[in-house]
Amino acid sequence: MVETEVRKTPRATTVPAVSDRDARVIVIKPAPRWPHLDVAELWHYRELLGRLVWRDVMVRYKQTSIGIVWAIIQPLLTMVVFSLVFGKFGNFPSKGVPYQIFTFSALLPWTFFAAGVALSSTSLVTNSGLVTKVYFPRVLLPLAAVTVPIADFFPAFIVLVGLMAYFSIWPSVALVLAPLFLIMAAVAALGVGLFLSALNARYRDVPYAVPFLIQIWFYLSGVVYAVSALPEKWQWVLALNPMTAVINGFQWGVLNTAAPDLGKTAVSVAATAVFFVVGLWYFRRTEPRFADTI
Amino acid sequence: MAAAAVSSEGLSKRYRIGALHGAYGTLRDSLATAARRALHHEHRPHYEEIWALRDVSFDVQQGEVLGVIGRNGAGKSTLLKILTRITTPSAGSATIRGRVGSLLEVGTGFHPELTGRENVFLNGSLLGMKRREIIRKFPEIVEFAGVEKFIDTPVKRYSSGMSVRLAFAVAAYLEPEILLVDEVLAVGDAEFQRRSLGRMEHLSQSGRTVLFVSHNMQAVAQLCDRALLLDGGRIVNDGPSAEIVAEYLQAGHGSSSSRAWGALDDAPGDELVRLRSARVLQEGAVAGSVDVRKPVGIEIVFTVLHEGEPVFPKIKVFDRQGDVAFNALDTSARWQEPTTPGEYVSIAWIPGNLLNEGLMSVDVAICSLDGTKFHHRAAQADALSFHVHDPGLGDSARGQYTGQVRGVVRPLLEWTAEER
Hints:
The structure holds two protein chains of two kinds. Helix content of chain A is 65%, strand content 1%. Chain A has helices spanning 39-44, 46-63, 69-89, 99-121, 123-126, 128-131, 140-147, 150-166, 178-202, 206-219, 232-238, 242-255, 262-286, 290-293; one strand at residues 25-28. Chain B is an alpha/beta fold. Chain B has two domains: 6-250, P-loop containing nucleotide triphosphate hydrolases (Rossmann fold), CATH 3.40.50.300; 258-389, Coagulation Factor XIII, Chain A, domain 1 (Distorted Sandwich). Chain B has nine helices and 19 strands. In chain B, helix 5 (131-145) packs across helix 6 (160-172). The relative contact order of chain B is 0.11.
């Protein structure tokens, strides 16, 4: 039956020395009823997270012919349109700064958030080839997806600096807090993305719902109008949307506008935490079935 | 004795058929079901359940090379998916001691837009390698894959063989303590298969544990010490690989570039003619992987038991999708006359530059003509299989083209052209 010569050399008796760092005992068991997040494992896979982010950024710039220019053109043209429609004809409130720079400075954190939600919500399905073939903490996929838009944020930020110079606007000391507000936007996007990506692994309706969701969210975030100009009652309601605090906080830093209200910001932070915990819980709970249902 | 590298206890995996269909279900369906249940107090719908894996227990000692064989759907892939933690078991547990490297279909995570170099780093970190580890092994990986010239070319311009070689090289140089492999040897040319087997042998000889799931019976028999035979999700046989493989092939399963039927009475056939053996040949040797440019011989050895009506050998070649590439029968005068008892060796030569690349399988038969129909006296479906590869030297029907060529056949035609 078997033609090939069977030749088995005697095996070396010594097992190669393996460093303790790599020696791991893995126990495979049915999925637990109550999921938890294995932070030590995430740390172990940190290089892969970086590699996934790097891959998506590389691929984006390779697939597009003008690459990085898109990151500048998109918010710039949107700003021009908004300034005409909402600023000039609509006369929307803009915190006492020129409408152009008001809306552009809001567009930056908003685009970062919206791209994070859009990318992370499809991250599992887009990478289904990986999900069904190789093990790694699945959380890395939506996590990488909310990190990728930072690559578009920086070029647009340089344009913002140019606009600030043009309108002679100086940032305030609160600029040092801007990264924190961006992290808050990323955490909120991750919470939403975790939930939607897990849902998308099972139901393919999600990609149809996401643009709609983002559109409505946009109008509730104060990108084209100043939330502070609304009646007090509504400001509290909108505080449940983390992006109102993110945009207020970001503008406080870059445009030196009024400091955001501490109470409303606290509400937004709490809402962010709820989004994140609920999203993570649902994701971890459905995770054992991803490879079977995707 | 040290603890087993892999020990599995009662591993089981249950799929709900309903849930499988629900994989692409819409949200509306689920909401509607939930609403119906709430309104009418219906119970949970009954799903049909299948056990893809049932109560599978085994130990693999450190340094042991274990083959897992079985028909499609026997549970081989499910077992590997559980051991690589891609999916979770429904019951049972498994303990793995050591760093695991897995090879579930090579090229996992290769991105076509990225270059070979970039993909090595991406793939390496997916397999759990650290950056400095990849940097250290990079020259070896590239050399093993033989893609030095194209390392900075996007992988989308690679031939399938090139990307497979590169992917295998990354995984092979991961140097895990436990390597889980699924069907890599079905791809690539003979030279690469030889090197891959060599690499796996090297890994096992240096004390690594290997779990090897394959349809390639020769590779299992050659490479593994021990084999598990799965059927219907259960282990039905466990023992030395040569014995298990022989029994499996004997039972008419598996595919190989060479097979033989033992006892004459058990061999496929009737009172007139019996099959004895079948082999795929190229350049005078049995070949599991053949060069597309050179002729391939399908050898059938059969025994005619007594004088009788004329019989003739016939082959039917299928491609991987199961489409019939062609049927062929020996029409020579020798088979027009009544047969005389004895053992016959018949070889059908498939010309070079006819088949397309990929896995081919062959049905062999000894037939007689029953009016206008073939009467299959001795037949074996899926008797042989072999892999057709293109060395990519530019002298095949491919020319300099490296992409996918569609079609069951890929003949090298004679073209004429003139300037008008």
